[in-house]
# Entry
Amino acid sequence: MNRESFGRFVRGNQKTLGVFLLLVVITGVTGLFQNSFVSQANLSNMAKWIGLYGIISVGVTFVIITGGIDLSIGSLIALTGVLTPLLLRGKGLGIPATFGVIALISLTVGLAHGLLITKMRLQPFIVTLCGLFIYRGFARTVVGDRSSGFQGEFGGLMDLLVRGKVFGVVPMPFVILIVLSIAAAILLNRTVFGRHLLALGRNEDAARFSGINTDRLKIFAYMICSLLAGLAGSLFVLENHSATPSSFGNFYELYAIAGAVLGGVSLRGGEGAIAGVLCGTALMQVSATAVFFLGVEETWKFAVIGIFILVGVTVDELLNRWAAKRRAAQRAG
Amino acid sequence: MVSSVKKTPLLEARGIHKHFVGVHALNDVTAAFYPGEVVAVMGENGAGKSTLMKCLSGVHLPSEGEIFHQGNAVTIRSVRDAEALGIAFIHQELNLADNLSVGANVFLGREPCRFGMIDETTIREKTAALIDQLGMDFSPDEQVARLSIGHQQMVEIAKALSQDAKLLIMDEPTSSLSQGETETLMKLVDQLRGAGLCIVFISHRLAEVQEIADRVIVLRDGCNSGELQREEISRDRIVAAMVGRKLNLEHHGNEIEVGEVLLKVSGLCTPLYPKHPASFELRAGEITGMAGLVGAGRTELARCLFGIDQALGGEIHVNGEVRKINCPQDAIGAAIALVPENRKEQGVVVEMSICDNVAMAGLDRHQRAGFVRDGELREVAEQTRRRLKIKAPSIDQAVVTLSGGNQQKVVLGKWISLEPKIFLLDEPTRGVDIGSKSEIYEVIEQMAKAGAAVLFISSELEEILRISDRILVMHEGQIGGELSRAEANEESVMKLATGAAQGPEC
# Structure
């Protein structure tokens, strides 16, 4: 790579590189104070959680790029989380059939969101906020508000999807996330669908007047988001062995959104990179774990994460302003 | 068009009607467009120009009437249908996804693919060829956000050409272009006409219509109100067809009494040109025009004077005293008012009523213990409406329902009600129809007569020359020169604006 193309690469991926650098620094610094932070066991454990949370962040990224939002992710996770053991154990449905049903439910949910948002012209915030209440209610009712678990069965499935490690170190969820991310990145950057999604997110009129069916694109985006959230729900419950419907997946939509936004996805739409989202999700998980390793009381966890994100976006804004000023000065020469 | 034998029109609209809820936007409009001609569509705002263009390009479906493409009846239901017929529409507010590259925009919606992936190489090559054809020199990989407005418009034209458009419809293509960019565009339009395309454009600028159009179609209140051939195009005839009355577009001509210096700016540097200081004075009773190319820093200067952006250096004297202006409140305190460049985003809150908009800047003066005194406000708004002849049945009318010209009068009214001494007007007649324009000029002249110092920024040379008592020409952040009314003409202003007469300091 010569200097010029390297420069272009850095400019084009400034945000992702910044977040990645921060990730390395936090890991390194925490590792210096607590050597066990960078032990294979802890890194592997963090990678597993990054994998699980990353899936929902990648999903919500598609929605945020259209300029929308999905607040129903956590409740949908609760619904598919309680349904997975129920279908597998309670109803004795086979594994493929169970995942088929879960995928179908999730896609239906996404389709409903998309249709309400595009055809009824309701605001994404409202539609998915209602979804947040509705799916939580379904989840609690369908299992009579009792926790739904595997009772020690389906160990093989757990091994395959969440407990297993490739080469003995890389946890399966992380592998799933990487494969998914490569597919998502190709979809976003190399296909017509992705190109149109980015155009629509920035300037919907421009997309529509270019003959693009923007409604269909948006509906697809919500379907992708819900599908990934629903399947992640199954993985989360496999990891956790059981799901308590009143609390399972609480706040997960906010983790997903925070991961995407930290990774440089703009809530205004039209802007975002999958690699950045991975780094953003990782940053969330790593900093939460670091807080724990550095001996901060567990009760402070959310406050610390909140402050951390706030500082992060403030610094980002300041750097942007500084860069803009410098560019202006350069132009004036 | 010189042909006396009538060819088959490329596109013909007959008896078009378009109804919107409660509005009869087009009423039996007929128009024909032939290959190899440039047609200007003119009319006051609300006359139905844009609606007609949208009916021809598939954005709207006409309520009634027929459209013929090369003699065959067609129904244009969508932008796609229009494209298939070789009709491309370039909207006034450019429709580009500026987060994407030039090439991505040119081929948006029609991306060439290989194995399901976008074929970037083909896009790059074809876009480069189009850019070349347009005589431009930017890269197909450049992000559109980094291009100037003029270049962004070229991207739109490239997009139309890539669709093999035979009929190019442009809605006010020059409204945000500088003089230089406008000339480039006019040359290109001429070149495209030579290549057999038909170009239809909406314009409020009589000069450019006279220069380039083969034919002018004039609409008034949704009806055809006149059609002029090349040799018949004249200001008087166009204006007569547009408004059906004679307008006062001439300079007031009165000998003005220039008073003392109200605003003195020395060495002011805007963030856009941190190293190019600007110095000038505004005097009471005088309208000072400010000309310059787009990007010369005129808007930035006005923003700094009004405290929206921070000046990087220099001093502002109001009435002989140095004033620090760090925010709009400081500016208002110094009796400065700004009518901003972008009316809909910065001038008015379009959903709110005329009364609320007029009251917005002066709420402080009409309150007691924090409670708004509605009666006073309504009185002020009512006075403003009458004084500025705002065409609305009541001051409770939402601003969004008013024409561009009347919206701008609301903005002017908001400030006039505060009785400022220094008036900064940034493109006050942009997108304003010709009837309201002359009324806005009258208001400005009245303000000057009443002793205010007016800075009139405009990219339309014609109106600057018409209204100004004195003209400052800006070039790259500095005052490139000053012209008296007698010295000013198009050449002398352009010479200064392009930096031909550069001052000694750089």
Notes: Chain A touches chain B through 28 residues (CB under 8 Å). Chain A has 14 helices and four strands. The longest helix of chain A spans residues 301-332. The longest strand of chain A covers residues 148-149.
